[in-house]
Amino acid sequence: MDTIDRLRRVTHEVSNQVPALVGYDVAGSDAALLDGLWREGAGWAEERLRALGALAGSEEAIAWGVAANRYAPELRTHDRTGNRIDEVAFHPAWHELMRVAVSHGLHGAPWHDPRPGAHVARLAGFYVWSQAEAGHGCPISMTYASVPVLRRRADLAALFEPVLTSTTYEPVLKPLREKSGALCGMAMTEKQGGSDVRANTTRAEPFDGDTYALTGHKWFCSAPMSDAFLVLAQAPDGLTCFFLPRVLPDGTRNAFHIQRLKDKLGNRSNASSEIELDSALALRIGDEGRGVATIIEMVTHTRLDCIAGSAALMRQAFAQAAHHARHRMAFGALLADQPLMRNVLADLALESEAATAFALRLARAVDRGADEPNEAGFARLGIALGKYWVCKRAPAMVYEALECLGGNGYVEESMMPRLYREAPLNAIWEGSGNVNALDLLRALAKQPSSLAAYRTEVELARGADTRLDAALDALNDTLTGAPVPEESARRVVEKMALVLQASLLVRFAPPAVADAFCASRFGDGGLLFGTLPASTEARTIIDRAWPG
Ligand SMILES: Cc1cc2nc3c(=O)[nH]c(=O)nc-3n(C[C@H](O)[C@H](O)[C@H](O)COP(=O)(O)OP(=O)(O)OC[C@H]3O[C@@H](n4cnc5c(N)ncnc54)[C@H](O)[C@@H]3O)c2cc1C
Fold first, then answer.
1. Cα–Cα distance between 68 and 15 in angstroms, integer?
2. Ligand 1 center to residue 443 CA distance, Å?
3. pLDDT number for residue 1
4. Angle at 300 between CA 102 and CA 373, to 5 degrees
5. Which of 128, 203, 295, 468 has the most crowded Cβ, counting Cβ within 10 A?
6. CB 286 within 8 A of CB 238
7. What is the pLDDT of residues 326-364, one digit of tens each?
8. Which residue's CA is the nearest one to ligand 1's atom 43?
9. What average pLDDT does range 79-87 have in this prediction?
10. Strand 272-285 vs strand 256-261: parallel, antiparallel, or unpaired?
11. How far is the CA of 309 from the centre of ligand 1 (A)?
12. How many CB atoms within 10 Å of residue 408?
């Protein structure tokens, strides 16, 4: 008996497995983030960002992210006695994630504390905290983005802005006036079309002054537990924007019925629903027929967050890959010391840094846009570029990072499958790839000042790198003022985005980063990651990006 027990205890020793990446400062270990934070005017936020970063990298927050995705939200249509309630029940981990996000003002700080750099600081916080868990960023972003639309009606803004920007998280449905903190979603997409919202069929019948009764459906309505929604519906004079509360001032539930929750590829912590409106009462914002023009400001801000969210996914994927390579041996050496793995990691680090720099620069443009027309023009065009390019680079980049972990990367416990499933989403919602590429053509055609602002920005790097100079010349040859054909939209967007990223890196990143980016993105690179020229200073690039 003794002998058998002894034998059983020695089947094998566990070795060469990688410890979990926990207990690190997600913000403080991200040099590209901190450099960008200071450069774009929000250095004052560093201390608070690092505190959030330490929490994001803690065992506790990582466990919240796991639990919020493993225990998906559940729809509760009725209460015990059969009354309709239309509520969604979340795991407590979701609420913890939300509580931290709201208490750090990621859903609204720039609106109640609009100091210079406020949008940069918020975006940096969103980027850091999204690395703990991405799904709850959806209601956080939508609430952030709702305020500029609400401000189109001073009376509504006066009533509801304080509660939408409050740092108290209160996940209980009750009248907005009684809440200490509230969230706002948006409902535009219908069964027959999401990109073409002008095809919306939801009807808005005038009821009493600016109050209308909305009847129809919405095919994708995320975060349905939010306290209010911006909704598009057809009023007598055309598509119009409305503010629809979940609970009416008298405490009764508005006629907002959740039909079912979507069974999604990723983003599983977040509830996305199909809803029906049955004479639901809503307040008009903007004129009848001006729905798209009114809600577009919300879309601008949520698109900015799509870029930040994708940059965050890329950064977290790089962090996991680099951490693994630093601990895992193969063929007698650490993966991180093997030349081909170094090439892959360096290429991933470049992509991540380029995305981070892009997002922070855009946040500065949003910060300054109110006072500086050039920055407003740059934001108009830059957000379309970034939404297309950064969001589309994320899935390929996250996939390559996943493979750095080998088979372990294919297993849920590594976090990589969650990042991978989340990665395509930012490109789809808030205007899918083609729609953004076409939006860029619209900006080129109708807002030449936005192209001028873009040119001013990218030309700042001229003379620093011959490959970038050649790309700038080629772009100038393309953008002659003549209309760009629709079928060429993706080609043009891609080139403009790369030139912008290169111009940021050439000016602000270490020479090894800028040189490798220009070399590989303007000619001497392959189609997949890990194809940087052999002369690349891979170790320098990776050392800059190491997590922890
Ligand atoms: C997880 C998730 C959550 C969501 N949450 C919300 C929400 O809270 N509120 C909300 O309103 N919506 C939400 N959406 C919907 C999302 O915004 C839409 O799915 C998206 O806008 C695309 O619309 P669609 O699905 O109808 O696709 P379509 O409009 O049918 O487009 C299909 C494809 O055709 C392309 N396309 C469209 N027009 C053109 C054109 N002229 N030329 C070339 N190509 C074109 C698009 O780029 C896309 O790739 C959510 C979606 C997802 C996946």
1. 31
2. 20
3. 55
4. 115
5. 128
6. no
7. 999 999 999 999 999 999 999 999 999 999 999 999 999
8. 434
9. 96
10. antiparallel
11. 18
12. 16
Element at 374 (helix H, strand E): helix 373-404
**392-401 pLDDT, tens per residue?**
999 999 999 9
- H helical segments located in 136-274: 137-150, 154-165
DSSP string, 460-525: TTTTS-HHHHHHHHHHHHH-SSSPPPGGGHHHHHHHHHHHHHHHHHHHHS-HHHHHHHHHHHTTS-
Q: What pLDDT is recorded for position 548?
A: 72
Measure 92 CA to ligand 1 centroid, in angstroms.
Answer: 30
Q: Which residues line ligand 1 (CB under 6 A)?
A: 185-189, 193-196, 220-222, 264, 267, 272, 425, 428-430, 432-435, 438
Ligand 1 nearest atom to the CA of residue 196, by list position: 29
Q: What are the residues facing 218 on neighbouring strands?
A: 275
Does position 2 have pLDDT exceeding 70, yes or no? no
CA of 184 to the centre of ligand 1 (A): 20
Say how far apart CA 234 and CA 409 lie, in whole Å.
47
Is the confidence at residue 128, as pLDDT, over 60?
A: yes
Q: Tell me what pLDDT residue 240 has.
A: 98
Q: Give first-to-last CA distance, the chain, whole Å.
A: 47
Tokens at 160, concatenated: 């509801």
**For atom 13 of ligand 1, which residue has the closest CA?**
220
Ligand 1 pocket check: which of 432, 436, 487 to mutate, most ligand atoms within 8 Å of Cβ? Answer: 432
Q: Which atom of ligand 1 is nearest to the CA of 195?
A: 29
Q: Identify which of 23, 43, 183, 197 has the alpha carbon closest to the alpha carbon of residue 120.
A: 43
Q: Where are the alpha helices (DSSP H) in 131-266?
A: 137-150, 154-165
CA angle, 374 as apex, 479 and 450 as ends, to 5°?
Answer: 30
Q: Which atom of ligand 1 is nearest to the CA of 218?
A: 11
Going from the Cα of 431 to the center of ligand 1, the distance in angstroms, rounded, reads 6
Q: What angle do CA 87, 182, 72 make, to 5 degrees?
A: 40
> What integer pLDDT is reported at residue 243 of this predicted model?
98
Helix (H) or strand (E) holding 426: helix 425-428
Cβ neighbors of 269 (< 8 A, separation 6 or more) are: 65, 68, 69, 72, 73, 90, 91, 94, 97, 133, 135, 136
Look at ligand 1, atom 7, and give the residue with the nearest C-alpha: 221
- 162-213 pLDDT tens trace: 999 999 999 999 999 999 999 999 999 999 999 999 999 999 999 999 999 9
**Alpha carbon distance 350, 356 (integer Å):** 10
How open is the CA angle 478-479-480, to the nearest 5 degrees? 100
Q: How far is the CA of 406 from the centre of ligand 1 (A)?
A: 33
Taking Cα atoms as reference points, which of 108, 119, 278, 122 lies closest to residue 183?
A: 108
Ligand 1 midpoint to CA 194 (Å)? 4
- Looking at ligand 1, which residue's alpha carbon is closest to its atom 33? 432
